[in-house]
Amino acid sequence: MRFIFLLLCALLLLSGRAVAADKVLDVAQLGRNAVSLTEYFTVLEDPGLALTLADMQRPEIASRFAGGQAPAPALSYGFKRSAYWLRLTLRNASGQPALRMMEVGYPILSDIQFHRPMADGTYESLVTGVATPFSTRPYPSRSFVFPVALPAHSQQVVYLRVQSVSAMLVPALLWEPQSFHAHERDDYATQAWYFGMASALILFNLLLFVALRDVVYLLYSVFATCTALAISASNGWGKEFIWPETTLWSNIAISVFGSLTLAALLLFTRRMLNTREVIPRVDRLIKVFVVLQLLFAVGVAISPQGFAVPGTVLISVTAVLILSVGVFCAVWRRQRIAVFFVAAFSVWILGTTVVGLKTLTLLPANTLTMNGYQIGSALEMLLLAFALAYRFNMIRRQATEDVRQANEGLAQRLQAREAELTASHQRLREIEHRQTLSQERQRLMQDMHDGMGSSLNSALRVVERGQLNEAEVAQVLKGCIDDLKLAIDSMEPVESDVLLLLATLRFRLEPRLESTGIALRWEVQNIPPLDWLDPRNSLHILRIVQEAFTNIIKHANATEVRVATAADADAVTVSISDNGSGFDVERALKSGGKGLANQLRRAQAIGAEITWASSGCGTRLTLRLPFVRQVGLPETKEYDSGVQA
By residue range, what is the domain housing residue 67? Predict the structure, then answer.
């Protein structure tokens, strides 16, 4: 029993010496700034993942902790599958209880255990990590935060056990609570600023895609979205706000979104720099790397730790490829937009490279390397916004130039077409003019043949038989001259005006009426024009009216003739009335005389209506001319209005 007692005392002495050898941090000396715990940790690697908290308190295990860590922002061990036990000795030399906040600011640690002593000498164990639900965290934060309470004039030994499928990085800080809350508020404001800017750029480019239908803006939005999600997975925002209760996904989210980011970036590069036409061979290589990035996303879901190092290498090679393509297009292909592209993505690649080198322990962990993703991504988004604005301006200038050239070409074609149409129109006018002359010639020939020609032939036959004296021959010749004048008057441009046509006839007939002692009462009024009044139809109207006046002069024994016009909703009415002896209209129509028959046929030829009303007090002729003339009316042969054979 004495031997066992001495052995236990020796073990306790060794354990006390081991703890005593640790560098002790007096929490009462903390100011407003946080203290890095790196130099205060003693570290034990557990490659077999088998050690427990009880093992840490065994003297032979406790003696294996290694101290003497150099002051640094974080402990970094790269990609290792081992678990690491960290021992920290804290002292409160003041006479007041102290509450401190221990922050492990690497949110993608898969498993982290915090063991703190209780008043009864036992330890309370808190198990959390990115692979566990967010609700397991003792303090709700994107980082791992553990409250530590120390009584007055006390000393405690706390343990941390960390393990991760990604890089092993432990940036541990000890804060005074008020300072920590102020730091946390500023940190969340900074993160909110970054994600707010990213959201604004994503939404803006999506709207540009909807408006312009240019897929480059959609690719940029996908790239920026994947970048923002990858950063949210790396800085703990995704775990806190987007997928708080997931386990496996939280472990692989940063790798999956990282590979999707690079795949979208490669596709964006192809579209932005037009590599399909500029460098087709490299364009095929870019497609290969797109496939590799997608395969990596699948592989990391199968074995997160097995693909960690190959994934980092693939990211580095892809970044070099993208930068090389941009430099080639900017220098050798003289693409001005490639200059903006290289400047934008160089900053992003630099930030990613810094984080990668920090992960591989080739760079120390500090504020710059810990936030390299956010800094590089923010600068890249701003610079790339200028690149897209320049691209839009370039496309607009090109479109304006294309429109100008198209307008010039269209103007030239239009001028040529106008010249062709002008020449064609001139030819058509010449043809129409010749056709009009031919038609008028035929009409005049027909009018002279049927009118004056018929009268002359009839008079010639009568003269040859000796049946006319000189006065009668003169009368026949006057009638022929009147027919000729009517044919000429019908060619005058009356512009669809019936009154102008009647005025022309009045000018011809009024001297004859005065010579016979017949008074003319001209009682016309304004009437609408007739659109169908052409030379042929005008001649029909003139002959009808002339025939009426001829009958009055020869047969009516009248002393007064009245001419009047009127209009209603359907037609224009021309009436000619006299105060002569009158005649029997029906008997005259049936007698076979050609005067009334010719008037009737001419009225039918132009779609008009003609009526006669006669009594002992005089005769009234009414000619009704419709506003809309029926088409396809039969032609009427002209008859002699003078001497009858």
Answer: 2-175
Q: Is 642 inside a domain boundary?
A: no
Whole-number Å distance between alpha carbons of 238 and 46: 30
How far the first Cα of the chain sits from its last, in Å, is: 177
Give the up-direction half-sphere exposure of residue 92: CA atoms within 13 A in the CB hemisphere. Answer: 17
Contact 560, 533 (CB under 8 A): no
The count of domains in the chain is 3
Kind and range of the H or E run holding 181: helix 177-212
Same domain, 618 and 503: yes
| Range in 78-82, 357-361, 610-614, 638-642 with the lowest mean pLDDT | 638-642
Could you tell me what percent of the chain has a pLDDT over 90? Answer: 41
Please report the DSSP string for 481-547 in residue order. HHHHHHHHHTTS--TT-HHHHHHHHHHHHHHHHHHTT-EEEEE-------TT--HHHHHHHHHHHHH
Summarised one tens digit per residue, pLDDT across range 215-271 is 999 999 999 999 999 999 989 999 999 999 999 899 899 999 999 999 999 999 999
* Residue 228 placed within a domain: yes
CA triplet 619, 620, 626: central angle to 5 degrees? 155
Angle subtended at Cα 297 by Cα 227 and Cα 307, rounded to the nearest 5 degrees: 110
Concatenating the DSSP letter of every residue in 99-166 gives: EEEEEE--TT-SEEEEEEE-TTS-EEEEEE-TTS-GGG-SS-SSSEEEEEEE-TTEEEEEEEEEE-SS
DSSP summary character for residue 27: G
Task: Please give the distance of CA 130 from its chain centroid, rounded to a whole number.
Answer: 43
Q: Same structural domain for residues 278 and 333?
A: yes
Query: At 546, which amino acid appears?
Result: Q
Distances (CA, A) of 263 to 220, 223, 372: 11, 8, 20
Q: Are residues 387 and 483 in the same domain?
A: no
Q: Which two tokens stand for residue 390?
A: 């320049």
Given its phi and psi angles, is residue 593 left (phi above 0), alpha (psi -120 to 50 degrees) or beta?
beta
Are 333 and 360 found together in one domain? yes
**H or E stretch at 562:** strand 560-567
Assigned domain for 590 exists: yes
Same domain assignment for residues 371 and 462 = no
Residue 636 Cα distances to 108, 142, 542, angstroms = 108, 107, 15
Between 622 and 312, the more confident residue is 622
Q: Which two tokens stand for residue 383?
A: 């610079």
Say yes or no: 199 and 126 in one domain.
Answer: no
pLDDT of residue 31: 83
Helices 336-359/372-447 angle, 10° precision: 150
- Three-class DSSP category at 606: coil
